[in-house]
Structure formats: C-alpha cells, structure tokens
Design brief:
Oligomer: single chain
Number of domains: 1
Number of strands: 5
Structural class: alpha+beta
Bound molecules: FE2/S2 (inorganic) cluster
Radius of gyration: 13 Å
Shape: globular
Distance between the termini: 27 Å
Amino acid sequence: MTRPVAGRPTLTVCRGCCCGTERKSPGVDHEAVLTTLSQAAGESATVRVADCLGPCEKADVVVVGPSPEGRRSGARPVWVARVGTARVADALARWAGEGGPGIADAPPAVLARAFRHGR
Ligand code: FES
C-alpha cells in the first residue's frame, strides 16, 4: 500500500486478528475487497493496511480519514463496519475519491455501515 499523501483522504483497511480473516467473515474474498479499494481509489485517496484497530466485532473495518481540507471543515474519521463486498469497497473508494468526509456526501452503502468509535 502507499504512504499517506497530504491533501487527500486516507482509507485505513484493518487486517488484524479478525478483519480480513476467513474465521471471522467466512466466504468474503478479502483480497478482492482490498484490490477494489486500491483500484477504485486510484490517485485520489491513499489506501493503507493496518493491524487491529480495536472494534473487532465490526469486522471488516475500514476507517476513512478526511483530507486536510475535510478536517478543516470539521470532519473526523469515519469508521465503517462490514466492508466485505466489492460493491461496498467500491462505494467507499469512490466517496474518498470525491473528497471523502467533510467534502462529499457519503453514499448510502457507507452510511448504513458507519459507526462511532473512540472519542
Ligand atoms: S482486527 Fe479489525 S478491528 Fe480488530
């Protein structure tokens, strides 16, 4: 994956003890989800893989970090649960490509899976 680049949103894809595992999400093609995220995001967003982010019960978790512009408009990271299909991964990546949190409205597939975590 790539390092975050200033000026664009970041998709942090959890691949810890539960997310991305057959044990937690049987039948999910985790490699296809990650490939879809990376390809759909293209140059518009940074995609990176992280170890366990904490809320394992929500696997498979992706956090959409706002761009600096989105953060200045008040946006905070959006936690998304059950990103287990290419359709949801594509919606996530396209949203990030459109500017992500604070810039563009999240699509229904993302809103339906968004949850609060941490502070
Ligand atoms: S493995 Fe993803 S939140 Fe724990």
